[in-house]
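Translate sequence into structure tokens.
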Amino acid sequence: MTGGSRQELPIGRRIAQLRVRRGMSQQVFADRIGKSKSWVDKIERGARRLDRLSVIETVAGALGVATGVLVGRDGPQPTVTEMSVAVERVREALARYEPATAGVAPAGLDRQAQYALAAYRHAQYPQLLRILPDLLADARHASGVGMPVSTGDLLVRVYRLTAQVLVKLGEPDLAWLAADRAMTVAGDDARRTAIAVVGLAQALRAARRGRLALAVTRTALHRLDATPSPTSPSEDVARAGILLVEAALAAATCGDATTAGTLTDQAARLAHRHGRHGGFGPTVVDLARALIATGLGDNGLAIATHTLAVSTDAWRRLPAEHRAGHLIDITQAHLALGDPQAAGRALIAADRIAPAETRVRPAGRAALTAVLRAGSSPADVTRLATLVGLTRQP
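Result follows.
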């Protein structure tokens, strides 16, 4: 992996640079954010992850910068052509089948993967696309030369992450390929399969294959056990909960309201029984309920459910990618209810959280176009449209 501009630096290195520029020692900085000097040192060296939004916001505040600057979101967004070139590099990486050779050590590979995951959670899609080709090659090589079992787990996660970002960028068929690779690596391991199938289900839904997405998620749920006990590890709870949500969304895409409702209720019971773990919790379920209602045409219920969910503290703790993506999706319900002003406000809020969601993702651009077509757009919506190269549609 090669270095480059400041936006390509790991978040720990970026923190160190900003701290030094402001003349703060590690101890002074640690005191300002309520952490130990040892904690700061580990973050800056990359020995410890920094992916909790609340902590990132605290760190950014102490450094006097916006969170976007800290995670590399302060530069101009790439053009559609530049994104197409970046996607093509990922396509080429997925098509390679070189013989396995010794490569990055497992510890370094894990740090690279964690950095890639953080980039995804902060909707840093251009940055992630720069990382993925080398990361795919390194993870595949490490797995092929018989490194520890954990390397196989990591390869599944890298393939899944690749599938998820490709779905975001409007490439469902290529995402399907990446997800299929994850499923192949997962083999008969139920836990790995539960990780891999999330990317596959999302790719299938994006390709309008809702019934297939429902089938694969249900199969994974049966193998994993969708009803963890009160003493189950939090990771098992999160995997089961996320699969239930994915299965419910898949059911909604093929118009199966009964199955979608049953699966969502099951996910809600699990969330309320176990709380929030690893990207799963009551708010995640409620956001899914809102999108399911939108897909099934009950837009009033969708907006009511959405409004309650986004008023919680748990909403603000969700990754930027999840929050901004949801706000873009919910514009459909606002528009269906004849409220383009609310749809526009949702888009502007999404843009403030994660600009790549509105300016890079095809879904964001499509939602913005729909709001412009609805007429009487607020000035900030018009400015956003100008920034991304869209004009008001007749």
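Note: The first helix runs from residue 11 to 21.
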